[in-house]
Write a structure and sequence with these properties.
CATH class of the domain at 76-276: Mainly Beta
Largest sheet: 8 strands, mixed
Structural class: alpha+beta
CATH topology of the domain at 76-276: Immunoglobulin-like
Helix content: 25-40%
Shape: globular
Distance between the termini: 37 Å
CATH superfamily of the domain at 76-276: tricorn interacting facor f3 domain
């Protein structure tokens, strides 16, 4: 699974964007991340232990003690599921008939217990020899307990047939920040009353929501083959796991499609999708590779998904295990509750990421491509071999996350891979400010807590370190062993460790223990001196060793002696909290670079002079070394040597280096002012990468009281939405009469990025003319963008007469009270909060919203808003 926005938990996906890239987006409003991370209390508290009376400082990131969450006990093996389903779109019901083939796992059983949430059970029958008989059962709307006709042993398979009605909309509201709903089955625009979106139906099973639409044993350590017969109106296309084995027209104008998957997979990976899709066909080694999109995006489907066969080939060869499943389809759906989901042979993706126009592709192809790689790699790690419990989720998600780096490395080179490494490390370190958990967590409050930047970004970085430690050949040979030995089964972390140990011959308990089983990360301070032909390198581990280990860190240190262009590499192993290493060199070094490969998952503070950092930039062997020099020196941009470095970097072959250098000139006041501005104008107009052009526009807007209207006017006509948005954001701070008409002409755009920027512009410069625009376009804003949009709407209304804003206030209040997405609720609340000084009753309204809010994170965020 790939999630998108985790709202006030601060987990906003920024796949494949460098840190400076994100600055292109407006930072005007406080982000939901900041709202929840901001502390009004001390970051640590003191606890006195009775035994010694010693005071232990408990860090704020230490999570509460949660209950142990063991792997589900397997009483019965689920072998096969056959479903016959049809739908009542008006009632949003599913009428189902399920034939389950099961057997006791080990001990004899005289009952069968199934997960079945919120059903109307019509009948339960035992099936044998072509005959059926009723069975007694009890049902509490969660568990269906069936009394069998006699005890059965582990050598005996048996079948039960259950007739039922699933009513997902009548279930108690569920979901989490990562997966925003847990009702399993979703009818989109079921009555067709919303003319802006198609009628669709789709399912989402992870974590344990498949049992909201069919009876099953809804645990990740079960595996079953399956067959699903879907009866739908004739105009709809269907998709499910496996192959379409028959399609029959019925006399009532409907059609029944039968999809069969002959290889076993976990129940949470079962899926259906129904809608008026266009199906774009591709192929790989004789297997069907299909892309399901809305018809108007048929023309760009190959541009978005077209690398899939190449990915199938690359991953199959790299792992030494050919893609094992019958086919591979990908479907874009509306209103998806996460980012994407790796249903076996039929991945579901949120349409905003993959239904792109040619103009969208200029800016967004990186997001789609990373997601496509991520979900495909799950078909080995997650589908072929499945985590036996949610505690072991990183065995699924860390690998899928790491596939994004592997694909970037293969397709676009080492710098692109390093950019992925940088951004994902940043994602984890941001989350680690507020929580630090072991990767493999046997204690958690709720299953969905596992879907965080630890399981994804941290886990991917741990795998990268493991790869660097054992070497590429051993890494991929170990993965092949793991997949081959555990295929079509459930796994746990020990099996991965054993696969690596059997391959390499080395005991790797130390690595798996410190990185998978313990929380936190190293916090390092690096310093060095040169004396008598040797470098004395000091490495200090500063992390709190009460709650975090002292790490064993194999790492490379590169030393450039004198003016040599190529360094000498030293392999060292850090094992102590404070450790000195002696490195022999021929002369005083120009640069000593710790972790030269940028592989460590760590927070590193490394002492270097300005001259050393300049040397590092000009002699860098990878993107991360260049970026680090730029980032470390940007505060000294007034120095001629530093500004010269940045100007050099603005012509670097790799776009992210150019972008970082362009950002480094924000508010530049040095002696090369005219030359720098001229160079920024050139970049804004001509750089081939839209992210760099957009950053140049944003950087120019940082020069206060200077007129760059000509640049902004040109940027408003750019082919990239990102660049146009940057121009609108710049004009929001420095509006000009000559550009207002051009900005207004963009009001009917379908680009979420432009709608975001327009709302920012109008929040500062809009009039009553834009009031109706805010109300009308609100329905066109993806949930990801609504947080800021709603706040901007509130700021616009501050300038309107009270009598003219009632409808807007009512809309914001309804969203703040009832929207299922907590980030949207927070944005609406903040929008209303803007009106407090000018609306007599608003304080009481906000107090009432706070008092009735049930979400703890949201209540905490409200408490920080003044």
């Amino acid at each position: 699974m790939k999630y998108s926005v985790l709202g006030i938990f601060g987990l906003v996906l920024t796949c494949h964007l460098s840190a400076p890239a994100q600055a292109v987006k407006s930072a005007k409003s406080t982000s939901p991340k900041a709202a929840i991370h901001k502390k009004s209390t001390p970051v640590a508290e003191s606890v006195t232990t009775p035994s010694s009376a010693a005071t232990i400082i408990v860090p704020s990131w230490l999570p509460p003690t949660n209950p142990v969450q063991p792997t589900a006990t397997t009483v019965t093996d689920l072998l096969d599921t056959k479903l016959e389903v049809k739908f009542d779109w008006a009632k949003q019901w599913l009428f189902g008939n399920a034939l389950l083939t099961v057997r006791p796992h080990f001990y004899p059983q005289n009952q069968l217990v199934l997960d079945a949430k919120g059903f109307d059970i019509k009948s339960v029958r035992f099936v044998a020899g072509g005959k059926e008989k009723n069975l007694n059962y009890t049902y509490d709307k969660r568990k269906l307990t069936i009394t069998l006709d006699r005890p059965y042993t582990r050598a005996e398979q048996y079948q039960v047939r259950i007739s039922y009605v699933a009513k997902p909309n009548e279930l108690e509201a569920g979901g989490s920040a990562a997966i925003t709903s847990s009702k399993g089955l979703y009818f989109i625009n079921p009555l067709g009353t919303d003319k802006t979106k198609p009628k669709q139906l789709w399912t989402q099973g992870e974590t344990e929501a498949s049992s909201c639409w069919f009876p099953t044993i809804d645990k990740p350590n079960q595996r079953m083959t399956q067959e699903i017969a879907m009866t739908v109106d004739a105009q709809y296309k269907t998709l499910s796991n496996g192959l379409l084995i028959s399609s029959k027209k019925n006399s009532d104008g409907t059609r029944t499609d039968v999809w069969k998957q002959s290889l076993p997979a976990a129940p949470y990976l079962t899926m259906m999708a129904v809608g008026e899709f266009a199906v774009v066909n591709d192929t790989w080694r004789g297997k069907a590779v299909d892309y399901y999109v809305e018809p108007k995006f048929q023309g760009t489907a190959k541009a978005v998904f077209g690398n899939t066969p190449q990915m199938l080939d690359f991953f199959s060869k790299k792992l030494g295990v050919e893609f094992p499943w019958e086919k591979y389809s990908q479907v874009a759906v509306r209103d998806f509750v996460s980012g994407a989901m790796e249903n076996t042979t039929a991945t579901t993706l949120r349409q905003e990421w993959v239904q792109l126009t040619p103009r969208d592709l200029i800016d967004q192809s990186y997001l789609a491509e990373g997601t496509i790689a991520h979900e495909l790699f799950h078909h080995w790690f997650g589908d072929y071999v499945t985590s036996e419990s949610w505690s072991n989720l990183p065995l699924n998600e860390s690998f899928a996350d790491y596939s994004e780096l592997l694909w970037a490395e293969h397709k676009y080179g080492a710098d692109a891979a390093a950019l992925v490494q940088q951004q994902k490390l940043s994602n984890y370190l941001t989350e680690a400010e507020s929580k630090r958990e072991p990767l493999i967590r046997y204690h958690y409050a709720a299953r969905e807590d596992m879907f965080d930047r630890h399981s994804y970004d941290k886990g991917g970085r741990v795998l990268h370190m493991l790869r660097k430690y054992v070497g590429d050949d051993a890494f991929f040979a170990s993965l092949n062993r793991y997949l081959t030995q555990n295929k079509f089964s459930a796994s746990e972390i020990a099996k991965l460790r054993i696969a690596f140990e059997e391959t390499t011959g080395e005991d790797l308990m130390w690595f798996f223990d410190q990185w998978f089983m313990q929380r936190g990360h190293p916090e390092l301070h690096i310093s060095h001196t040169y004396v008598n032909g040797q470098v004395n390198l000091r490495v200090e581990q500063l992390q709190d060793s009460t709650f975090t280990p002292i790490y064993r860190l194999p790492v490379t240190v590169s030393v450039w002696s004198g003016s040599q262009s190529q360094p000498t590499d030293f392999k060292i192993v850090v094992t102590k909290a404070n450790q000195m290493f002696t490195l022999p060199v021929s002369q005083r070094p120009s640069l000593v670079k710790f972790d030269a490969e940028g592989q460590l998952l760590a927070k590193i503070e490394e002492e270097r002079s300005q001259d050393e950092l300049l040397f590092q930039y000009y002699h860098a062997r990878n993107y991360l070394q260049k970026y680090e020099a730029i980032e470390q020196l940007h505060s000294k941009v007034g120095d001629l040597a530093v500004s010269g470095m940045l100007r050099n970097a603005m012509n670097d072959p790799f776009w992210a280096v150019r972008q970082a250098a362009t950002e480094g000139f924000r508010r530049y006041k040095g002696p090369e002012g005219n030359a720098v501005r001229k160079e920024l104008k050139r970049v804004a107009a001509t750089d081939k990468k839209s992210q760099v052009r957009a950053m140049a526009v944003t950087t120019l807007s940082s020069f206060l009281n200077e007129d760059f209207g000509d640049v902004y006017s040109t940027a408003l006509k750019d082919s990239s939405y990102l660049v146009v948005g940057a121009a609108i954001d710049a004009l929001a701070k420095a509006p000009t009469v000559s550009t207002r008409e051009a900005v207004n002409a963009l009001q009917e755009t379908n680009s979420p990025a432009l709608l975001h920027s327009l709302s920012n512009y109008y929040s500062l410069n809009g009039t009553a003319d834009q009031y109706q625009w805010f109300l009308r376009r609100m329905n066109d804003i993806p949930e990801d963008e609504l947080y800021t949009y709603l706040q901007n709407f509130g700021l616009l209304m501050v300038r309107l007469p009270p009598v003219e804003r009632d409808k807007g206030i009512q809309r914001l209040e309804a969203l703040a009270r009832t929207h299922p997405n907590i980030t949207v609720r927070l944005g609406a609340y903040r929008g209303l909060n803007s009106l407090v000084p000018s609306t007599a009753t608003m304080k009481a309204t906000l107090q009432d919203i706070r008092s009735k809010e049930k979400n703890d994170q949201l209540k905490a965020a409200y408490s920080l808003i003044q």
